[in-house]
Amino acid sequence: MIEIKTSTLSDGEFNRGVFAKRDIAKGELLHEAPVIPYPNEQHVHIEKTLLDDYAFEYGQNHTAFVLGYGMLFNHSYTPNATYDINFDNHTFDFFAYTDIKAGEEILINYNGEVDNQDPLWFNEETDNKDKSDK
């Protein structure tokens, strides 16, 4: 149903994204991504690595790495997919938020809610860095 291909939206050296292999109906389950959770107080170690950009909030006291295709969905403020955290199964469950056509890139809002327009953490860092460089 989904596959990893080169994305024009992703910058950096990997340029990957998740794409639909067939038409997908709104509400359809796209992927159940298992997670590796860890206590928030351990995140200080992760912040020193590239993995920091791939960690998701996982409840109030934990952070998690989302496995499978979960880390490869790119961001959009107008996403065609969303996700729910399934604590019982320890998965992030990705669903089509709109109908998705075969070949279309599947996008989520990194803020966790489809309509959340808050700046993303990596944009805030870039904005702050740009301001401090002037």
Summarize the structure.
The chain is mainly beta and 134 residues long. The chain is built from two helices and nine strands, in the order βββαββββββα. It has one domain: Beta-clip-like (Beta Complex).
- Helix and strand composition category: mainly beta
Overall mean pLDDT:
89
CATH topology: Beta-clip-like
Helix content: 10-25%
Supply Rg.
15 Å
Number of helices: 2
Could you explain how this protein is built, in words?
This protein is mainly β and 134 residues long. The protein has a single domain (2-133), classed as SET domain (Beta-clip-like, Beta Complex), CATH 2.170.270. The chain has helices at 43-46, 121-133, and strands at residues 2-6, 16-20, 29-39, 55-57, 62-66, 74-75, 81-86, 91-96, 105-108. The strands form two sheets. Strands 4-5-3-8-7 form a five-stranded antiparallel β-sheet, with no helix packed on it. A four-stranded mixed β-sheet has the order 1-2-9-6, with no helix packed on it.
